[in-house]
Amino acid sequence: MASSMENIIEIFSSIQGEGKYVGCRQVFVRFEGCNLDCAYCDTENAPGMHPYADVETHAGSRAFEKRQNPLSAADVAAAIDAMHAEVPHQAVSFTGGEPLLHAPFIREVRNHLASSLPFMLETNGTLASQLASILDITDIISMDIKLPSIVSKPQWDAHRAFLRTARGKDLYIKLVVAEETTREEFEKAVQLVSEEAPDALFIIQPVTPYGGCKAASPEKILECQNYALSQLHDVRVIPQTHKMIGQI
Prior knowledge:
By secondary structure, the protein is of the alpha/beta class.
């Protein structure tokens, strides 16, 4: 049976810069396309904008070769296996864009992969049915909560459904806080997590200013953590560390 095909932006080996597994070495597979329109998004992920995929020639080399899109699941699996053979990796991170728009392809990559690397999803946490379709092959879920101040349509119901689907996994939740973030929406997000996944790690991520978003003050970040700690068991503040140390 022929392998399915998808447009891939890039495949590379680097350091996870966000969330629970910050500092771990991972293979990153970045997809085109997203179902949301976050104000601070710094990735050009529009479908059809990448005639070629940038695939790192050796793990961590930062030397890339261009491969014509779309790539097959077998091609993607082979690139992951080659990097993992050179350097041990903690996981494969499927990112984007929104990786759950490509759930059948991710399953096919798993079928072709020789190594048993854990699969991690870096997701906007709005596609519960797509997550359910590959929950059995998903090991780690890094879920963002998208607040109404940074997307054109509130996602509360979608986030609730997603949390109910994901909570049996190694789930952690990230919430980006900017100066524009309101107290009301932040507290609503914390309440949602306390109702649906109270034992999950909750990470406040100070925004890296982009697209007009302004950095939150140190005082605001501490106030947010104060409130979250009153409702949740494990709340941490972790910025985008890969940008601090010049990693991609």
